[in-house]
Amino acid sequence: MPVTATFDPVGSTATLVIERFRQNGMEPSRPAALMLLGAILSDTVILNSPTTTERDHAVIEYLERVLAVDATEFGRQMFEATSDVSEVSAEEIISRDAKEYQVRGGHTICIAQIEVVGKDLLERADELLETMRRRREDKGYLLYALMVTDILTKGTDLLVAGDVAVVARTFDAPSSDSTIELPGVMSRKKEVAPKLLAAL
After folding, report:
1. In b/e form, how buried is each residue of 32-58, taking b as 16+ CB within 10 angstroms?
2. DSSP 3-state assignment of 145?
3. What SS3 class is residue 51?
């Protein structure tokens, strides 16, 4: 049988899943609903990402009613539980959620992202940057960047292995020790990658 595919501009695929449940007059089991709630909150960074849509908000409101939970509190607890990377190696941190992009001249850049609660991870900035520099050299990347995104302050500290000055000019922000503070920036897809791809 041919497969039906849906492509919609929403913040999370889980939003589409819940919409299909409702369109068919069905309700997900509690475990499934909790899993889908977590997926939407993760993808949209508790509805704070610029990729979030009104449809994501509507599905979250529905799930709050069905599950009798506070989605914001649930999301905060979820991120707190998963953001402790004190025992995680720098190698894993910089590669856990890393995406490659092609830029002019046949070069490749890599932008990784990790979502945290608080600034503790930045105490390991030197270790992370050294690991990023080694990975950049091994892979031949033009640039390696790591977004350390704080979901509470809703901003990102961008660690850069490569031409930091170019990246700083791109975001019109000062750099300090290969780190650029980007208040209000949370989305790699909408706020960081497009600017870097246009600049490099």
Report:
1. ebbebbbbbbbbbbbbbbebbbebbbe
2. strand
3. coil
Please identify every stretch of the chain with a pLDDT value under 50, giving residue numbers as ranges.
Answer: none
Residue 96: phi, psi to the nearest 5?
Answer: -60, -45
CA distance 25 to 193: 39
Supply 161's token pair. Answer: 């292995």
In what side-by-side order are the strands of the sheet with 155-161?
98-102, 108-116, 143-150, 155-161, 179-183, 175-176
pTM score: 0.77
Q: At CA 10, angle to CA 5 and CA 13, rounded to 5? A: 55
Write down all domains in the chain, each with its CATH number in brackets.
13-82 (3.90.1640.10), 90-199 (3.10.310.20)
Tokens of 132: 């990023």
Q: What is the pLDDT of residues 143-193, one digit of tens each?
A: 999 999 998 888 999 999 999 999 999 999 999 999 999 999 999 999 999
